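Re-run with default settings, no changes from the original entry. Doing this only to confirm the output is reproducible before filing.
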Amino acid sequence: MSSPPIRDLSDTALWVAIYRAQESERSDPLFRDPYARKLAGERGAQIAAAMPFAQEHAWSYTARTWLVDQCVEREMRAGADMVINLAAGLDTRPYRMDLPASLRWVEVDLPDMLSYKQEVLASDRPVCALERVPMDLRDVEDRRALFRRLGSEAKRVLVISEGLIIYFEDDGVAALASDLSAPASFRRWTTDLTSPSLLEMLQQQIGGELGKAGSPLKFAPREGPQFFVPYGWKPVEVSSLLHTAGKLKRLPSGMVMLATLPDPAGCQPDKPWGGVCVFENSATASKT
């Protein structure tokens, strides 16, 4: 590639879509995303080819997607009537998953990302009601207004954030978590999380390219999932990407033994760990 592999944060969405496409094209896929390849486009394939470390760890993106899918399915059974996907990127769950037609799915991302997605998927139809909200989530007043509006329009909301908070400073994540816990209808939040040790490894392997694109990797709390408790979110499920990929038979042969070791569940900052956490709104939990 004559240009840098990653030009800006939006390029990461093209890149990650390639891994969803690769999983979907297997003979035994864990999920099917028939839109991923065309959304990723040639640019996404070029980025993936230029990031060999990430390609070697494509299993982690597969495990993350699968875990969030499982969370969505559980929340549908529990009666969720809205899903809010923060920094939705090129996610296609409202198109590819078996969701009730009555569900409201809200995607929030930067205007250019949502416009590109709308253009590529113009001939496709979501299975549920889909709303796209162009917004920079760093704009605190705008996001609070959005959360207030959506919170008043639903009874049970699942919030999703994949590949988002790792780009925030600690205080930025704390503020976002507090804003999300304010609406009582925001019942569950699922997000990926990284330990300080894994963050250091990622910074060495892919952090340089992300840093050059103005999107350095930052957030990896030493407290692990407990970081979110003071801001209104109680961890109810913590799943290791490594152990999940092991159970799903997606790990390279050289890493299979690692998945037999005890899972630190994000609570040991000096161990490389990445996972998906499901949090419950503490204010809501205390009333039920």
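The beta strands are 82-86, 104-109, 129-134, 157-161, 186-194, 233-240, 274-281. Residues 173 and 278 are 15 Å apart (CA to CA).
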